[in-house]
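Protein modeling request. Please complete all fields; requests missing the sequence field cannot be processed.
Requester role: graduate student
Desired output: 3D structure, token encoding
Chains: 1
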Amino acid sequence: MTDTNDSTDSVGDADSGQEEADGTASDGGADSPLDDVLLDDIEDGDADEASQGLFDDLLSGQPIFENKEVLRPSYTPRKLPHREEQINSMATILVSALRGDTPSNILIYGKTGTGKTASAKFVSDELERTSQKYEVPCEVEYINCEVTDTQYRVLAQLANKFIDKNEAAIEADLDRLRSLRERGRTNADALAETEYDSVEAVEDRIEALEADLDSFEDVPMTGWPTDRVYNSFFDAVDYRERVVVIMLDEIDKLVEKSGDDTLYNLSRMNNELENSRVSIMGISNDLKFTDFLDPRVKSSLGEEEIVFPPYDANQLRDILDHRAEVSFKGDALSDDVIPLCAAFAAQEHGDARRALDLLRTAGELAERDQTDEVEEDHVRQAQEKIELDRVVEVVRTLPQQSKLVLFAIILLEKQGVHNINTGEVYNIYKRLCQEIDADVLTQRRVTDLISELDMLGIVNAVVVSKGRYGRTKEISLSVPVEETEAVLLSDSRLGDIEDVQPFVQARFDN
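Delivered output (510 residues):
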């Protein structure tokens, strides 16, 4: 990049020389039009150079990734190592859909990152692809219950999906019939090998389909009674013959938020449907969520159960090797990168999602360093970054009272206080509550909140005996102080606290 100061100096020297040659003074005179043009050119040039340099430098290195999307959780690979048994079990259950029968309901269990959703989507894709091959009406609809977490939203989303499919099918039929009608008007033989014996019969069918098309109404995401939403969904599903598999990912979140009414309604639909058949595939991280279900729902929903065990380090290496072949260029990974990613993720209960995040983040860090190879140090940096991101997200979503308790601990730690005890935390917590006009909880409740922060891995709280003075908790932070404080201060109420120093100085006051 051209040095701006050097460019300016050169122009200045040229101007001075020109002025001396012309016999004019360099000061005291008005700027000439030539000066304006030169200065404009310089400013424009500097702007161009700055804007070009911003991204040119970043693009100068060779890209490391061939296809980064392969390392994201949303990607469904064509091969899933070490999940053949579970995939075959699902396929064995769902194959009845291709025969026009109703498959058994399936519950899939396993910890986060054990391949549950990826395997279920893989089998679903294969099911739909095979149904098209053999011209068997079979459809799979996916709902993420962590996002769509109420009965109304689940039913509305499903209703609208089937309404859209019905409308598309009707439009296709109408196009075919209108073409047939025109051919039949000019040539009676055009109807010879169809189910219609006259042009009038074709027109009657067209009118009936147009009436059906007009009868469909999209369900709004709020505002209707739930029974009306259910009826719209029911009518849309049963409009034509098909076998439907409804995949409810994070099904435990739906039960936790809305109870089991949705599952009860879905599991008993087949008793009333005339044209269609519905099967439910539930995916859950919680092996015990069915303990809270109505016994009738539990027995219907759990007709077949498939468990996904955690991956071990060797299995994670196989998964990463398979993805890395597609996602990275040539020799972009040093030999120790994938084993290290697998080892870190194996410590996190065999979480393949964590392993993929580590590998992708390490690659991104290597690109920012403009190196040609991802190395062990990039993986360690990625581990720290992901852990910090997790902490930031956990702290950001804490309830207000927990944030106040954590803020009190941070203030004490920043003052170099060692062996922080519950009483010190409570005294500062009370002052913080008074400062932002928040309710003050009892010391027993604050002790419970400290225990919750300990369970989340944000603080470390150890109960120690003080002899005849009883027992107390000694508390220390388990997360970076500055980053955690920044997240807390991003909360508008905590951010309004201007001076916390008196709170800390008075920490031993009653």
